Amino acid sequence: MIDTRKRIVLTLAAAAMLMAAGCSTKPEPPKETPAPAVTPPPAETPKETPPPAPETKKAPAPEKKAEAKKPEAKKAAPLGNTAPAEFQVKMTTTAGTITIAVHKAWAPIGAQRFYELVKSGYYDNTGFFRVVPNFVVQFGLAADPAITKKWDKKIQDDPVTHTNKTGNLVFATAGPNTRTTQLFINLKSNQFLDSQGFAPFAEVTDGMDVVTKIYAGYGEQPDQHAIETQGDAYVKSKFPDMTMIKTAKIM
Known about the structure:
The protein is of the alpha+beta class. The chain is built from six helices and nine strands. The chain has helices at residues 2-24, 108-120, 145-150, 208-211, 224-230, 232-238; strands at residues 86-93, 96-103, 126-127, 130-132, 136-139, 168-171, 183-186, 202-206, 244-250. It has a nine-stranded antiparallel beta sheet. The longest helix is centred in the first third of the chain and has 23 residues, at 2-24. The radius of gyration is 49 Å and the shape is globular. The termini are far apart.
């Protein structure tokens, strides 16, 4: 009886141990199966760039003679910043064309300033705003007030080495060492201006007849300050018949 009980107890104990062992071991979660490695397609072999086709030069037809090369036209040398000793200016106006010869030796500072002004196009589209018959024709206020202001830089006087004769060009002044951009052409011999420091630097060599045709009907009416501040707009609205400089170019 005891043995039977022992056997039952041992059997139950063994069963309990097996069950405990089975419960204590948790099943391992399934691992994700890695996707099979994909072999990348082979890189595309770069296509070889074909070499450029050789240039085919056409041989001249045997019956035709090769034309002689024409000499190239000489290009004008670019203008430098320093005025040459002698130069000419062609002034195209609404009354005709005026040619001016500049002599640097007469008045070097004035000649240099005039060269710079013409080279910059300062006198293009400007008017002869003061005409005093048998005395002078005056000009030199830009069409654009901003340009007039830009060049409002006084230069020193030159010694007077040549007299103020008919056709000579001279800078207008407002006193010693005040020359800027305004010029006048002598309509007659004005030698009395020599002692006042007006130094000619150039002369009209062709077109003095055009100078005498410059419209004089407005006399000294145009307001110089208004031209300085309003420019071409003021001139066209108030003085439509004023003779104008279309262009002034160094020849």
